[in-house]
Amino acid sequence: MAKLNEGDVIEGIFTIALSLYLAYGKVEKSKLNSIRTKIDTKLFSTGRFQYPVAKNLSRKKSGKVADNFNVSFEMRLKPQSIVGAFDKEYEVLYKSSRDIGKIDKKIDQLISSFQKSNFSKKADSVVNKFLDNNIGENVNFIVIADGIQGESSGGLIKADVTLQIYAEKKGSKAKQKILSETFSYSLKSESVTVSNLSPYKGMLEFANALNIKWDAKKTYERLSAPFNGIEEQRAKFKLINSMYSDLKKEIIEKSKQRGFSKNALSFLKKNIFGEDMADVIDVQSKAVKEITVNYFNYLEETVELGVEVKGNNLIFIDKKAKRKIFQIRTKLRPPPANEAKFYLEVGEGVYSK
Q: Which of 84, 180, 274, 332 is most solvent-facing, going by the fewest CB within 10 Å?
C-alpha cells in the first residue's frame, strides 16, 4: 500500500469545504465529512468524480432580487495516496467519529480559517457581487480538484484546485453568459517546498535568472548525461556538490550588485505561483497559512534581499525585517539510495499577514 499523502487528501477536503462555503456561507464539519463518504475513488483512475452540493439554491439579501446558485465539484486525486480518506474506506471511520493521520485537526483549522482568510474573502466578494447587484441570475460555481493535471504541465501550472464561475440572467432566452471567471489555488499541507528541481538544470536555471555569468553549463556538462554503475554514481554526487558550492559563491558575490533582489524574487514568484498565478494555501494542524499574489507583489516593491549561509542552505533574508524569504538547498543521498534533489523552499517572510 502506498504511503498516505496528507497534501493530496487536503486537496480534496478543501474542494468540498469551498463548495459548501459558496453554497451556504459556512462550512459544517458534519456535512463535509458526510460528503467524503460519498466520493467514488474508483473513478479517479479514469477521470473525475462529480458531485452536486446545491441545486437551484435561492440566495438573496434583504430588499434585493433573489439569485439561484448551483454549486458542484469535480475531483480527481491520486488513488494510491488518499487511501482511507474518502469513499467506503472512510465511511468506517466516519461512523466511529475517527479520521486518518492529522486530517481531523487540519479540517478544524480549515473551517476556522474561513472566518478570516484571503481565499474566503475572495469567495465572499464574488458571491456578494451577485447578491448585491439586484439582478436575478442563475450562477454556477464549479470547484475542480485535479492536481494530477497540473503535475503534467512540468511545473508551469501550480493550481491543484480551481473555482470556475458562470452566470446568466434569469429568463434570458439567449442564455448569454454575463460572467465567466476562474480562481486558482495551490494546496499544501505543512510543506515549504515550492520547487523540487533536478540539481544540474535547477542550478543553471537559478543562476541564469540572477544573471550570473559562469561556465557551469560546460564545466558540469557531464551531469546532463546518464551515470551507470556505482562508481559513476559516486562521481555524479561529487560533481553536484562541487557545482552547488560554486553556485553559492557566485550568488553571494551577485547579491552585492544592483538588481539582485528583483531577479531573485522574480524567480521565486515564478516557482511559487506558476503561469496560472495560483494563491498558495498551506493547511496545517495548528494553522492555515497563505501566500497570495497580492502580498508577494508588495514584497517585490519593498524587500531588499541579503544572503546567509547556514550549513548546506543558502538563505535569502529580508534585510530590513530580518525575516527569511526563501532558501535553496540540496538533498544528496549517494548510492545505494542514489537520490539527488535541488530544493527551493519558502520562509516565514512570504506568508500573507
A: 180
